[in-house]
Each structure stands twice: as C-alpha cells, then as structure tokens.
Amino acid sequence: MLFVEQLVNGICIGAVYALFAVGFGIVFSTMQILNLAQGVYATYGALLTYFAITKAGLPYWPACVLGVLGAGLVAVFVDQVAFQPLRRRGVQLLGAVIASIALWIGLREVMSIATDDTPVGFPPGSAPRGLLEVGGVSVLHTQLVALVCSAVVITAVYVLLHRTNVGSAIRAVGHDKRSAEIAGISPRAMIVGAAMLSGMVTGLAGILLANGQSFGAHLGDALLLQGFAAVVIGGFHDVRGSALGGLLIGVVQTLSAAYISTTYQDAITFGLVLVVLLWRPTGLLSSANLARA
Amino acid sequence: MRTTTTHLRASGARRHRLVVAALLAGTLGLTAGCAKESGSASGASGGAGAPKIGVIVAETGPLAGSGRSFYYGAQIAAKQINEQDLVPGQKVELVSKEGSEDPAKTAGVAAQLAADKSVVAMACCILSPVAGAVIPVAKAQKLPVLLWGATQLGLAEPPYVLRTTTMPQPANEVVARDVAKATGVKSVAYSVMTDNAGIVSQGEAFKKGLDEAGVQDLGQVGTLAKQTDFTSAAASLMQKKPDAIVVTATSSEAVGMIAALHDKGYAGQIITGETVLGDGVFKSQPDALDKVPFPVYYLADEANERGKKFAADYQAAHGSNPDDFAAQGFNAIYTIAQGLKAAGANPTRESLTTALNGLTSLDDTIYGNVTFSGGQMDASSSVKIVSYTKPDGAVATWSAP
What we know:
Largest sheet of chain A: 2 strands, antiparallel
Number of helices of chain A: 11
Oligomer: heterodimer
Shape of chain A: globular
Structural class of chain B: alpha/beta
Radius of gyration of chain A: 19 Å
Strand content of chain B: 15-25%
Low-confidence stretches of chain B: 1-10, 30-46
Number of strands of chain B: 16
Strand content of chain A: under 5%
Structural class of chain A: mainly alpha
Distance between the termini of chain B: 85 Å
Radius of gyration of chain B: 24 Å
Helix content of chain B: 40-55%
Helix content of chain A: over 70%
Mean pLDDT of chain A: 88
Distance between the termini of chain A: 56 Å
Strand order of the largest sheet of chain B: 1-3-2-4-5-6
Number of strands of chain A: 2
Largest sheet of chain B: 6 strands, mixed
Strand order of the largest sheet of chain A: 1-2
Order of helices and strands of chain A: HHHHEEHHHHHHH
Order of helices and strands of chain B: HEEHEHEHEEHEHEHEHEHHEHHHEEEEE
C-alpha cells in the first residue's frame, strides 16, 4: 500500500511538473527561447492568488483565475520587454537566455519586496485542504485538485494547439515565422498569444504547488529544473511529450527518494534525462522536423 | 511610397522602444524606490572616533524574515549600550552591510568592512556556509567576528572567530527529553534535511535526547533543502507508525513537512527546532504549527530585567516581542560591548580580540548567566520549550496536550 501511495504522490507532483513543462515548452517551440524567467510566472501565479484572497477578499477559485491571468500578463510583459527587442535585432538563443535571467531576478525581487520576504500560505479555509482515503491509500484534496486541473488544462492546451486555427497559426510561427507571415499570419500576435498561454499555464502550476505549502518569492525556482528536464525528456515540440516527461520525473523522483536515497534523488532524475538524451535526442514523443523547400 | 513605409516603420519601432523603456524604467524605479539601502550606518551613531561594529545583515533573500530579527536585535543592543553607557566614555556605532545570507556576497561585504580600519569587530551569519565564507576574511584581516546564528558544530576558531549563537543542539536535547517525559511517547521517527550539515547535527541532538529518554528510534526519512513537496516523505514517516515525529529542517521546509503531516492526518506528537521561528511563519500554516513544541533560549514574558528592557524597546520600535533570533542579534552586540569595556579607551582590533578571548562568563545577559569556552558561548541553562498559539501566533510556554 505504501508503494501505491508513493506512486500516487509521484503522479500528483508529476502533474504539476507536467503543467510547468507544457508552459515552458510552448515558449521554446514558438520562440526558440530557453526562458529562465519561466519559474517567475509560477511564483506570480501563486502570490497574485494569495493577494487576491487576503487583500481583495476573493474566494479561492476566482482568486486562482486572477492569479492565472496575472501570470499570463507577466509573461507577455517579459516577452515584449526582453525578447521582442532581441527578435527585432535577430539576436539568437544566448542573448535571450541572458535577458531572461535579468527579468527572472528583477521580477523575483519585486515579489520579495511585495511579500517583505516573509513566507505566506493560503489562509485556512480558503484553498481545498482535506484527505481522501481510497482503499488504504490516503490522497490529499490538494493532490486531487492538482491532478484534475493539470489533466484538464493540458488536454485543453493540446486541443487548442492541434485542433484549432489559432493553434495551427501558433505552431506555424514556431516552425517558420517567415512562411507563416507570407501566409497571412501575424507572427507578433501569435507570439504574444503563446506567451500569454505559457504564462497562464505556468501560473496555474505555481498555484497548485503552493497549495498546502508555506511559500514565497522563490517558489518558482524549484520548478525550473524539473520543468526543463521534463521538456527535454518529452520533446520540445509536443505538449503530450512535455506532460509525459513531467509525470515521469515526478514518479522517478518520488520513488527514488522513498526507496533508494533522498540524497541522490536529483542525480537519479537527471541521470534519466541524460539517458533519454542519448537514446532519443529529440525527446520521447517529439516528431522529426520537416524541412520544406 | 517605400520611403513613407520605411519612415512609418521606423516611427513604430521608435514608439515601441519608448514604451519598452518607460516600462523598464517604471519597474526599476519601483524596485529601487522600495529596496532597502545597504551600507548605511544605522543603530546608534556614535560620532567621530566611536568604535564601529560591522554587522552583515540579511534583510533580503530567503532568510530575510529571521535576518531582520537579528538586525533589529542588534540595533536595540547598540541603542541600549549607548543610553546606559555600558562602554564607559564610548558610544558604539553599527555599520551594516547587506549580505542576504549569500556566501559570495557576504564574503565581499566582509572584505569591505575589514578594509575600514575604524571597524573593530564584526557580527554576522545565520547560515553555516555563509559563516564559512566570512571566516577566512576575518582571520586574514585579524578582525574579530562574532557569529550570531550559524549552528554547525566547530565553527568557532579563537582568537578571531567567536560565536554567541545559542546553539540549537543542547536545546534540542532538552526539548526532546522533556517532551518525551511529558507526553509518554514510546517511539519516534525523524525527518531530517540531509544536505545541510548544521541541520543534520541538530537532528542528532534530538536523537540523543530521545535515546536518553528511552524512546525507540524507528528510523529516519531524509528531505532536501530545495524540496517543495513533502507528501511522499510524510507518507514514509507515517508508515512507521511512530508516537512522535521530529522534524529538523530550515524554516520553510520544516513548515512544509509539518503541514504535510498535518494534512495527512498524523495525530501523534510532532517536535521541531527553532527554525520555525520568524516573521510570517505561523501565519503561513497556523493550523499545522499550532501547539508544536520547539526550543528557545529567550522568551520575553519570562526574561530577566535586561531581557524585559530589551523586549520593551523592541516592542516600541517594531510593534512585537523579540524572538530568539532578535535575542541573538542583541546578545552578539552586547558581548562585543563587554569586550570593548574590557579593552579600555581607544580600542583596537588587537585589544578587542584579546579582551573578547579573555571572557569566560557574563552574568547579566538577556539569558542570565552565560559561559564561554573555546570561543563558544553556552547559555543552555536558559532553554525553554514553547509553541505557537492560535489565533495570532503568540509564542508561549508549551504544555503537554
């Protein structure tokens, strides 16, 4: 039973990593940017939700909506302030990474000041807190919420990107911006849309991670490595791959901590990343890039 | 036409740059306007020739909550030292630098303080790795440094590195023994943050106390400093079915672990260390932290006269009672002042170092009588077992349920 419970724990935290990885992957596949400020979106999602509950007196779910939207707007801000000027100048990956580091530090400091660098938590009675016993396995309500929200949102993102015209346009811009422009798609609009979507998804990951925790301005930093590893494992251009990568990391990390060693859990997890990179460099589910003449 | 189009594009690009610049300037202005100044002299200002004490503070960063407590305590100490003329004929002056409990940054500001020859002593360091970064600077510059918070065993290196940290290890032994006796627990499991040597040694102290109380050790589950999810560790601990669980970790991680145990429905006795003290900690998880015992060396309501005066001034300045971290900040500066008093007029780094190393005990500290040995202060006779109480998180003497 403990093994089953640990598996459930791994899947539930993996669902949060999956959500984060999807947000991370949207930015990379659309803009070819390794955005190290991605973790800040998770932090903003959680902290804006916290402020909406404690300062504006909103109930939990409307506060979450506000937090998610706020995280999306932060992502648009980062894109327009840091990445758009670099795109205009044709600056490649390294410049964007450096710019994202600067925004990461600056935005995190804003939240440090806003919280006075003290830990916060969703007030008792606001966020879902409770326990469900199913066949001897105890599952927290926060874990169930994380699992359900992640599943719904990731499915919705997949449908958006692969079954709608807007999603096709976003993917087209990510594949070949110039050709998309010739076809009448506005690359800038699609990139802003992708940034917003990425921020919202990542903001939701931050809220789900913050449930039941004491957290602060550094919340999102903890997700960055796991999210990046999930995208590498799953593949940069496939939402399903990022989600699968996140789930896999959550399960491997949890089971290795529980049954092998806490000390080496990160080494084991990132060793897995290395193995996947050596075996399938494009990721588990990434399709081959098609180059058209 | 082309020229017009090009001109329009250029205008659009310029407008976009202006908007971006305005947004950036607004963000930077907001950050700068709200950011705390570092390097400014604060606390009591003693005027020209006043002996300067460098304090490396952490008002920003992950430890800002406790960092501020240390600094506020130090400031109150300097104020009282000057008001009461505790160093006859001299007024002490604090020179603060922001280190954010980052080893590289703290080493840098330590070097700045050491380069200022009017600084005769330094006080710093909550984290042991940060203390480790400062120690070489202090020794190279022959500048006595008092470590006020770092808890790893063996950090004191007389004559230049002394420690007034009220060590959690003796306190953890006391709380473990006394809580076991009061509650009658027969078995215990441990949650220990394994990648922090200071925390590991604190966990070992809990084990020693509970072993002495005859409590059966059911084993340990490790956690990590950067961990954010504790449900798996909580499940592993609860599976051992212990009467008590001891949680040893740094602040947010200890609270996360305790909250996970609470949410998973653990009904046994939880014991933890002093790391759960600090601004905002109780409010972040009030249900989980309510009535969980932990040790402190200083409790305002049970303090001696000097301790009560400290509490009164702290309350007046900050609107709340000082916690154990503030007490350590106070006591570090108070100890340096006693060294300055012994060093006589016109103290130098050398004379102050000699005087500080000559201290074997102090009678009238906020902890009562304390002793010094090998550069380390011992205040273990003043350990108290406390807990947070609802609804406002006041820290009060703990009593068994």
